[in-house]
């Protein structure tokens, strides 16, 4: 069997590796830096103010298939209040509007962590995992006719519509809907084609 | 077998903790990950142009104990109460070289305030485990003599003990003066006694919280 594209990121060291690109999706003041804390990983900060969003991604180098790939991410939102949150997944561009993507939306305004996929329009589904500020393992798998969303080892949601059709890249974002910034912490990211 | 590295490292349903794996292979040191902290004079950390060379850690040729760390620039993501550090060490031919490697809370002095470090220096006759709890540092020797033979070592901390294994065999268990503050991986070199370039090689480092 031919070897396929495979990527692993530990988010451990003095700074974010240069093969990641950081971008302010909305607002200003966002950043991505290593957290000086046990199990701190990378801290993606939305920037302070209302409706700010910041993402890290591969600068639109899309090496992962919308019909045969897996993304695994261990992450948490750092504070589970004030509508702060973020998401982890794979997308065609770094923003989560007008995009092809699958991702997990972990935002304090929701009761449950959501599974999201989109081609021309988005489909948002509640998982059974209550939104909180704890680390979870997120696994999203793009198949030829479905997308599967697994949290902490348990399959939560399967989408068979609204599936991405364009090539994908890993992305992690933080956003806030209040005047207080949001932090997304991530200690592991893996992506591979199947 | 799963295609996922994550699934091979973590039991199904568990949430992985912070981990880093470094293979020290390439055209230069990964300076996004690693920080060189000079303590005295100038030391270098560069890939070795030799089979199984990994990273070549060298002092300069001067006297006055040139010394330095490879660190995460005090970004401390590892838990001294639950960690494992695995690495390799091969001393250069000159035995007048101090070597320490493991985890520590800072890279600003030869002995971090909190640390758990394998030592293979020239001031002791045996490979040893050194720990410090923020104020008191102590060291316990193994029964393996210091030499230039390459070896694998493994330090495990669980809150009540720090255990050093050499080439897969448990050699030292320390239960006193254990670190309690968050730590980072550290690789250290210090020239001793003679004015000459001193070296050691490291080709693998893995650290993770348990």
Structure description:
The complex is a heterodimer of chains A (194) and B (210). Chain A has a single domain (6-193), classed as Jelly Rolls (Sandwich), CATH 2.60.120. Chain A contains no helices and 15 strands. The model of chain A has no long low-confidence stretch (mean pLDDT 92). In chain A, strands 1, 3, 4, 6, 11, 12, 13 and 15 form an eight-stranded antiparallel beta sheet that branches. A seven-stranded antiparallel beta sheet of chain A has the order 2-5-14-7-8-9-10, with no helix packed on it. In chain A, strand 12 and strand 13 (154-159) form a beta hairpin. Chain A starts with 5 loop residues before the first strand and ends with a strand. Chain A is globular and about 45 Å long. Chain A has strands at residues 6-9, 21-26, 31-34, 42-45, 53-57, 69-77, 84-91, 101-107, 112-118, 122-130, 136-142, 147-151, 154-159, 169-176, 183-193. Chain B is mostly beta strands and 210 residues long. In chain B, the strands form two sheets. In chain B, strands 1, 3, 4, 6, 11, 12, 13, 15 and 16 form a nine-stranded antiparallel beta sheet that branches. A seven-stranded antiparallel beta sheet of chain B has the order 2-5-14-7-8-9-10, with no helix packed on it. In chain B, strand 12 and strand 13 (169-174) form a beta hairpin. The A-B interface holds A 6, 8, 10-18, 34-41, 70, 72, 74, 135-137, 139, 152-154, 187-188, 190, 192, 194 and B 3-7, 10, 12-21, 30, 32-35, 71-79, 182, 207, 209.
